[in-house]
Amino acid sequence: MSTFVGIGLGPIQTGIFLAGAAKGGFDRIVIAEVNDKLKDAVNEVGSVTVNIAADDRVYTEVYPNVEVYNPNNPDDLKKLVDAAAEASELATALPSVKFYAYCAGWLREGFAKQPERVRFFYTAENNNHAAEELEKAIGTAFPNTYYLNTVIGKMSGVVAASPERPGLAPKAENGHLVEEFNTIYISKCPGIENRKVQNLFVKDDLFPFEDAKLYGHNATHFFLATLGKTKGCQTMDEVRAYPEFIEKARKAFFEESGKALVKKYASLNDELFTEAGFKAYVDGLLVRMTNPFLKDAIDRITRDPERKLSWDDRVIGTMRIIMSQGVTPATFAEGAKIAAEEFAAGEDVKAKLAALWPQPWGEEHDKLCALMGI
């Protein structure tokens, strides 16, 4: 019997890994989830329903053979340990790598029951070294357990259950709405060609694609949301009413971020890092970002400015990587200024940014501020 284990029952888990496991033909899909109401709702029907946003409609898919257990419940925990022992593929989809501390113990106990089993363990947290962090938390006693990083360019969210957007189960309060896009990159390991989870694409070197995601996709998503916010837009589809914003985002994405990333990774010989390949990436993403059937919330995209304005993240980090390739991020700087001034909330902008950026203050700091006009 083939078993898949997922940790966390959010939209990344359901829309990517649970969906991929169901389509890959796993006999059992076992999920660890601490929300008892959600657990009970799913277990009552033994399946999960997910809303899929295409470019012209929303439709649903139902994934069967799902069992949910709460690791805080002793009886459930035993079932999770047994499932971990039997699992050939697993996936974490947690708020951060900090949560590995809460699942590493029972995973280790399960793996120890079958220490030689071949396992592929996907990590979906927003951290370029999530796989390494998970292996560190669990330990290295399992030679055939491979921890894999991912690049997830799929937009998704939680919505209130309604007749138009069904919940995860009939008695679930919330549903998941995920975009139809299904190209998820994963790192490479021995035997990965034998995986069953669908829609996962192996890359020999994942870091360039992580850069394209953070400093291209995420950066432009934030930039376009920031522009839309200046006009009172609440969801990304509303930004389509301002074609000048779409074109400004296209310019920043292709002429600044794209030019820099194509230059940086030209030797990779991957289609994405060519002028034509990156242009197709830009054009496709701008349509996806503003999908009226996804209705991505602008407040969600622009939240947590402390992280997003930090030295290596999607605002300042993008400007820095563009400058490192001899390109001027003049258009991205416009959005950065808007975001920085909103974050400062009337206080000194440089002082607020200094609290987020590494010290001592240097020439690069000055250049960034000059570009932003602050």
Short description:
This protein has 374 residues and is of the alpha/beta class. It has helices spanning 11-23, 36-45, 74-86, 100-113, 130-138, 207-229, 243-264, 275-289, 298-302, 305-308, 316-324, 330-344, 349-354, 363-372, and strands spanning 3-7, 28-32, 47-53, 58-64, 66-69, 89-92, 119-123, 145-148, 150-151, 156-160, 174-179, 184-186, 200-202. A six-stranded parallel β-sheet has the order 5-2-1-6-7-8, sandwiched between helices. A four-stranded mixed β-sheet has the order 4-3-11-10.
Q: Quick one: overall form?
A: globular
CATH class of the largest domain equals Alpha Beta
CATH topology of the largest domain: Rossmann fold
CATH architecture of the largest domain: 3-Layer(aba) Sandwich
CATH H-level superfamily title of the largest domain: NAD(P)-binding Rossmann-like Domain
Contiguous low-pLDDT stretches (5 residues minimum) are none
